[in-house]
Amino acid sequence: MRVPPKNTVDALGPFDRALWRKRRDRTAARFADADFLLVETVERTIERLEDIKRSFPSAAVIGAGNGAMATALQGRFGIETLLQLDASSVMAQMAAKAVPDAVTLVADEEALPLADASLDLIVAPLTLHWTNDLPGSLIQMRRALKPDGLLMAALFAGSTLQELRTHLTHAEVETTGGLSPRIAPMADLRDLGGLLQRAGLALPVADREIIPVRYANPFRLLTDLRAMGESNVMRDRHKAPLRRDTIARMLELYAGSVDATGNVTATFEVAFLHGWAPASTQQQPLRPGSAKMRLADALGTDEKPAGEKAG
Amino acid sequence: MTDIDEDPAAEPRLVDPKLLEALVCPVSRGPLSYDRAAQELVSERAKLAYPIRDGIPIMLSDEARQLD
């Protein structure tokens, strides 16, 4: 059988996935310094799962990180088998230590080693925004779910880092007279909802949480982003390296935007995507013409024959 | 990699045939078999062997060993 060329999508996509993995490897040791957004995402994912009245015997976490998600999931929601996957082997080792009862694997979000219809639940916290082929990843996850299995993904979207983006744009134009891609483009919530549907997930829901983070010093935001493994891995990033004076000007502009408490804000928008692998037991739209009640009765009004002018 | 962190306790779970059934080769989507001696998960269809390091299977095609 022909083996497809390696990293075909990777070579075309905006992100250098190998570099992203390397960054994640390198940052694993200090990930705990800035895992507050993952902690927040885990909490909100768990809250949402608590509202769903069913059990999930086999579950997988895609983007294991430091094991925070698997730690929160294990022994709950009827989970018997728990897998956790991370693209970084160093991160995976850390997750394996944190959750020894889970089965830990190193795997790429874009080439998942999960058999079809093998899982009841997939949770994917905060790595999918770095995929070159998000629709492809969602389709792979849907395929790995049993009928009526649930996907709950969380990724940075929309207004994430809007302040940094603005200040950096101004600083770069001022100091260099030009612009380069510095902050990854963020998907729009509406587009993400559409992607769920395109991936073949039923009852799709996309909503978001806006998480404003306050910093006394904007430099700390840059340190945190690095510790989260969120620094720029865009393929075009090296064409014009970020200059020292540009960073200095950006920090100056950012520091100028302090609020009454003397802090600056960094906005993070986390999109939460839910969808179910289709199953005949799910609520289905009725067939046209199968109504058992007249619309006019439901509205408490008189039905007028078509063609007759109302009122 | 060092083998200081080697955790033999993580191994038996992998051998669990039910678990192995839930995994496929990420390249060919074919089945995997466990080679205990070599500490590899072998995909006959893709002719690739994925290494297991410290009890963690590395399911990345660019880390896999090409089989003849």
Describe, in plain words, how this protein is organized in 3D.
The complex is a heterodimer of chains A (311) and B (68). Chain A is an alpha/beta fold and 311 residues long. Chain A has a domain at 17-160 and 185-211 and 269-279: Vaccinia Virus protein VP39 (Rossmann fold), CATH 3.40.50.150. In chain A, 35% of the residues lie in helices and 20% in strands. Chain A has eleven helices and seven strands. Chain A has helices spanning 8-12, 17-27, 36-50, 68-73, 89-98, 134-144, 162-176, 189-198, 218-227, 244-255, 295-299; strands spanning 58-62, 81-86, 103-107, 119-125, 145-156, 202-215, 264-276. In chain A, strands 3-2-1-4-5-7-6 form a seven-stranded mixed β-sheet, with helices on both faces. In chain A, helix 7 (162-176) crosses helix 10 (244-255). Chain B has one domain (17-66): N-terminal domain of TfIIb (Single Sheet), CATH 2.20.25.10. Chain B has two helices and five strands, in the order H-H-E-E-E-E-E. In chain B, strands 1, 2, 3, 4 and 5 form a five-stranded antiparallel β-sheet that branches. In chain B, strand 2 (40-43) and strand 3 (48-53) form a beta hairpin. Chain B is globular, with a radius of gyration of 12 Å. Residues 1-6 of chain B have low confidence and may be disordered. The interface between A and B is medium-sized, with 30 and 31 residues. Strand 3 (103-107) of chain A pairs parallel with strand 4 (56-59) of chain B, so a sheet runs across the interface.
Structural topology:
The complex is a heterodimer of chains A (311) and B (68).
Chain A: H1 8-12, H2 17-27, H3 36-50, E1 58-62, H4 68-73, E2 81-86, H5 89-98, E3 103-107, E4 119-125, H6 134-144, E5 145-156, H7 162-176, H8 189-198, E6 202-215, H9 218-227, H10 244-255, E7 264-276, H11 295-299
Parallel strand pairs in A: 1-2, 1-4, 2-3, 4-5
Antiparallel strand pairs in A: 5-7, 6-7
Helix pairs in contact in A: 7-10
Chain B: H1 11-15, H2 17-21, E1 33-35, E2 40-43, E3 48-53, E4 56-59, E5 65-66
